[in-house]
Amino acid sequence: MPRVSQDHLEARRRQILDGARLCFGRFGYEGATVRRLEEATGLSRGAIFHHFRDKESLFLALAEDDAARMADVVAEQGLVQVMRDLLAGDSEHPADWLGTRLEVSRRLRTDPEFRGRWAEHSQQLTVATRNRLEWQRRSGNLRDDIGVGVLAEYLQLVLEGLVSHLAMGLPADDLEPVLDVVEDSVRRHRGD
Hints:
Layout lengths: L5 H26 L2 H8 L3 H7 L3 H23 L1 H10 L9 H13 L1 H8 L3 H16 L9 H20 L8 H11 L6
């Protein structure tokens, strides 16, 4: 039997995560049946669960992957850019990590076991946000009358509010100026 390359395994894993992201985003955790996951990924259940122990492990891996991608955006461009990326999708196809974010939020509220498993992974975005704010402060671009911890909490609350807004299907067409205000509210203004 020929050996499968590591690149092939990684490509297959990525294919599963990409399909699962769409499936969980469209149908939610409970509605993402194995059959729907097979359809979304284009792979058999055997292929899917060769890479992931079960549906829970697949969802957690997807949530971790999305959290890492969001943290990368925060490190490079800040948390407001994550919010802008969420707005970049339309109501039919929101940014690909919105569905996962919504499911994580719902499961944190309703599933104590998931909350425990997720706790160790949930700090990525917080750490990336604080690090970015610290860097902005050292660069002289961040207001210095409010602590970095408070500013990080503020931005994360705005993110959660935006996620809720999008989850309710409310219009997002004119939220870019709102994000401009949010971004401006944490900046240090020359002459301050």
